[in-house]
């Protein structure tokens, strides 16, 4: 009996009829993607506001009476958690994952649209729970985004009584939301591709999002478990992470727990989390570079295997966050080695991006600018990672601004640059309108140069030994006075970058109202999402017939072809054969 | 694989090529693939719980209570170690057997029998949860074991016990509800047109819950 692939079988498409089912309780992956993205960007703006408050305090201590020490720690904590989880994870997987996977794989929707919808609403609930912590007694938790017990649940830490509970509850709900979405993304990539779309023909964006989702499904359980256990320690009085401890002269009822266990569990999630954010970024930037350089991606297979290798290695490096925690030094040796091994697949990717540009027909479009900015920033951040990955170098640098500069370069600025590049790249497809090129260029240059003005000096003051997370350094003798001048400069740069983001929102609003119609494929891209019959794509994406794919995603500037790109769904007969039609790509 | 695809190479490249072929990687339905992936993720949750338990068991400063004494029942004047847990384990493994028979009957399209076996499975699961409730209340009321401490030794004993068996018991309870709903729909003939793979998907979840129990049994009660 002939096996009919499930994607080809008849499926009922429940077309939405009313405004509510179309835009609010929507099961369409494109609408859900936009809901996810808008919520995440609102959270990102909030997180950015918190970082501005921190910068104001650091540059002008004793000036702002509303930034108390407690408030400062709460800002640090909420800024970190919001940016990592509620902005970057939600945006790249919930936003871009939802939008791109079905369109790039040639599917009509996610495999379980209802669950996909629930995923967004659970995410919104987790955001709601997180924000509720501003309205509970004591305010949000100020334990730092790592939430290390014992201090996160002991008096003296802001929000130790209610804020930490709201944070843990919010994280647990977020993980449930992510699981429902993630199961959809993986199953859609594995089981619902269109005819001809083999795994090795998928655009790297899909590969990055796909592998990042697998990493997430295996790493978030550790966060879930540690959240449950901290919650029990706090609410029920168990002693998982709590040793016998004196607090404010009182002997607490805890005994015999292990604070190190929390760090292991947290970083078993925390380090893969870096790659949950980074892998979609790697994938998306590969597509941006290839498309706007009019050249096939260099070493596609190596790019795929590098993504898979990075994902696998990301699970065996977690304790490099714990070199100063007092664990066995032999662990440090092991984890330093694995950490430096990750540099190999990562370097392969950077070289391949550069080689993709080499002798390409580069167009300095806005997405391309952001993609090139990403290569520089990511390389900078990666190089300081080599310093911090070595135990002996890490020990003096640990918990200084050098670390802050490192991870902001590599996992803050780099993903955000790609995030903007990707929004500008797909904006014409999502809205059907073209954005304003000049505004977008201003946005790019202010953001790129501004973030360098913020983070390059931070490396320097970190090497001087200025500790991070401090409300004020109170004229410590080892810190030269010039650090204050540097801090003022950093803050001015940071305020400029923050203000520059308004250009992005002005651009989006202006373009939605007055932008020129974009046409279906303004960048002359090959991938399937640009070949939809309607722009923006309608419910069901493809009209009556699913697309068929005949080639990989990178047939740019093929010799002997009239156009400099060949869409993935163009049959081979219409032009001379290309390399990609032979063999298995 | 469709018929117009070239023959696969031998060995590992063949496996990779097969998995990477167009449309779908595994020749199973979407729901079944998704259940497998979910169970993989859930495995990591239980692994983290059990690893955390082992870690605190090693790091705690007070001796660990002896499980075979704690979990003994006195029946007719004799103290029999682990007897209740043995019965509970036996029931849960039996329920995996009845679940398999439900799956078999589902594919044979005996929908009455399939629903019946699913219901038996759910009842066995419910009796497991009932016995767990009995075990909990005995430990709490008679032995004085609390999550924050106990008279027998390390405080982490009670904490790990209630957390891990509680989380597993929650899984069993959800499974009982899930099975009951699917059994009801099977009995109503809801899946006549689509086929009875749903029974197998529910079964995957049930076998997983059963398998996890074996690990909890080994690592918590027998160690």
Describe the structure.
The complex is a heterodimer of chains A (585) and B (223). Chain A has 585 residues and is mainly α. Chain A is 61% helix and 1% strand. Chain A has a two-stranded antiparallel sheet with strand order 1-2. The two termini of chain A are 29 Å apart. Chain B has 223 residues and is mostly helical. Chain B has a two-stranded antiparallel ribbon. In chain B, a hairpin with a 2-residue loop joins strand 1 and strand 2. In chain B, helix 2 runs antiparallel to helix 6, helix 2 (30-59) packs parallel to helix 7 (197-222) and helix 4 (83-107) packs antiparallel against helix 7 (197-222). The longest helix of chain B has 34 residues, at 155-188. Classes of the chains: A mainly alpha (585), B mainly alpha (223). Chains A and B meet through helix 5, helix 6 and helix 7 of A and helix 2 and helix 6 of B.
Most strands sheet of chain B: 2 strands, antiparallel
The CATH class label of chain B is: Mainly Alpha
Number of helices of chain B: 7
Major sheet: arrangement of strands of chain B: 1-2
What portion of residues of chain A belong to β-strands?
under 5%
Which structural class should the secondary elements of chain A be placed in? mainly alpha
Number of domains of chain B: 1
Structural class of chain B: mainly alpha
Q: Find the CATH superfamily of chain B.
A: Cytochrome c oxidase, subunit III, four-helix bundle
CATH architecture of chain B: Up-down Bundle
Please give the alpha-carbon distance between the first and last residues of chain A: 29 Å
Strand order of the largest sheet of chain A: 1-2
Give the oligomeric state of the chains in this entry, treating copies of one chain as homo and distinct chains as hetero. Answer: heterodimer
């Amino acid at each position: 009996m002939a096996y009919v692939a499930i994607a080809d079988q008849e499926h009922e498409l429940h077309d939405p009829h009313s405004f509510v089912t179309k835009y609010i309780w929507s099961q369409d992956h494109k609408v859900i993607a936009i809901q996810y993205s808008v919520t995440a960007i609102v959270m990102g703006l909030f997180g950015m506001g918190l970082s501005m408050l921190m910068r104001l305090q650091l540059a002008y201590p004793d000036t702002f009476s509303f930034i108390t020490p407690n408030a400062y720690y709460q800002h640090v904590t909420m800024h970190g958690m919001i940016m990592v989880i509620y902005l970057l994870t939600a945006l790249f997987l919930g936003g871009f994952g939802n939008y791109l996977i079905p369109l790039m794989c040639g599917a009509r929707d996610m495999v379980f649209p209802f669950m996909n919808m629930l995923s967004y609403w659970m995410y919104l609930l987790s955001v709601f729970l997180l924000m509720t912590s501003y309205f509970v007694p004591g305010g949000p938790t100020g334990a730092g985004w790592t939430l290390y017990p014992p201090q996160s649940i002991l008096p003296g830490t802001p929000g130790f009584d209610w804020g930490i509970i709201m944070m843990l509850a919010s994280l647990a709900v977020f993980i449930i939301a992510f699981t429902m979405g993630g199961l959809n993304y993986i199953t859609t990539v594995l089981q619902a591709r269109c005819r001809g779309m083999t795994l090795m023909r998928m655009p790297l964006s899909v590969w990055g999002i796909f592998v990042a989702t697998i990493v997430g499904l295996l790493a978030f359980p550790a966060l879930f478990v540690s959240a449950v256990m901290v919650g029990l320690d706090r609410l029920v009085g168990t002693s998982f992470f709590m040793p016998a401890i004196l607090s404010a002269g009182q002997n607490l009822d805890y005994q015999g727990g292990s604070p190190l266990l929390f760090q292991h569990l947290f970083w078993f999630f925390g380090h893969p989390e870096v790659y949950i954010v980074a892998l979609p970024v790697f994938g998306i930037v590969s597509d941006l570079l290839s498309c706007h350089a009019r050249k096939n991606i260099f070493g596609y297979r190596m790019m795929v295997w590098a993504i898979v290798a990075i994902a696998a290695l990301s699970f065996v490096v977690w304790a490099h966050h714990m070199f100063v925690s007092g664990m066995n030094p032999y662990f440090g040796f092991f984890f330093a080695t694995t950490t430096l091994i990750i540099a190999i697949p990562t370097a392969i990717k950077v070289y391949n991006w550069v080689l993709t540009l080499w002798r390409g027909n580069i167009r300095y479009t806005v997405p391309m600018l952001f993609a090139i900015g990403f290569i520089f920033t990511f390389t900078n951040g990666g190089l300081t990672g080599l310093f911090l990955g070595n135990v002996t170098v890490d020990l003096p640098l640990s918990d200084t601004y050098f670390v802050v500069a490192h991870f902001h370069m590599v996992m803050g600025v780099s993903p955000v640059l790609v995030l903007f590049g990707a929004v500008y790249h797909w904006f014409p497809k999502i809205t059907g309108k073209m954005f304003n090129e000049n505004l977008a260029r201003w946005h790019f240059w202010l953001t790129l140069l501004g973030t360098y003005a913020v983070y390059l000096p931070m490396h320097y003051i970190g090497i001087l030994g200025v500790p991070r997370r401090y409300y004020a350094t109170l004229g410590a003798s080892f810190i030269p006075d010039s650090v204050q001048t540097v801090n003022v400069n950093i803050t001015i740069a940071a305020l400029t970058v923050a203000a520059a983001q308004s250009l992005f929102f002005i651009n989006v609003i202006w373009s939605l109202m007055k932008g020129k119609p974009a046409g279906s494929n303004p960048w002359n891209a090959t991938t399937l999402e640009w070949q939809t019959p309607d722009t923006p794509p309608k419910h069901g994406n493809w009209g009556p017939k699913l697309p068929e794919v005949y080639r990989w995603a990178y047939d740019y500037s093929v010799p002997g072809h009239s156009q400099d790109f060949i869409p993935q769904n163009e049959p081979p007969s219409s032009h001379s054969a290309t390399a990609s039609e032979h063999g298995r790509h | 694989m469709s018929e117009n695809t070239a023959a696969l190479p031998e060995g590992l490249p063949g496996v990779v090529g097969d998995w990477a072929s167009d449309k779908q990687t595994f020749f199973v339905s979407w729901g079944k693939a998704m259940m497998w992936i979910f169970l993989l993720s859930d495995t990591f949750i239980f692994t983290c719980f059990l690893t955390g338990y082992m870690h605190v068991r090693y790091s705690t400063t007070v001796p660990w209570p002896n499980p075979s004494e704690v979990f003994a029942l006195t029946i007719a004047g004799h103290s029999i170690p682990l007897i209740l847990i043995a019965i509970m384990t036996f029931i849960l493994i039996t329920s995996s057997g009845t679940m398999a028979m439900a799956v078999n009957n589902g594919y044979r399209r005996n929908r009455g029998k399939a629903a019946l076996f699913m219901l038996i499975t759910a009842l066995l699961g419910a009796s497991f949860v009932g016995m767990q409730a009995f075990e909990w209340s005995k430990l709490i009321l008679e032995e004085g074991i609390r999550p924050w401490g106990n008279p027998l030794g390390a405080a982490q004993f009670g904490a790990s016990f209630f957390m891990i068996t509680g989380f597993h018991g929650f899984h069993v309870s959800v499974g009982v509800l899930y099975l009951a709903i699917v059994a009801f729909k099977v009995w109503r003939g809801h899946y006549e047109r689509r086929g009875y793979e749903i029974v197998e998907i529910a079964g995957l979840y049930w076998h997983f819950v059963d398998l996890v129990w074996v690990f909890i049994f080994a690592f918590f009660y027998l160690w």
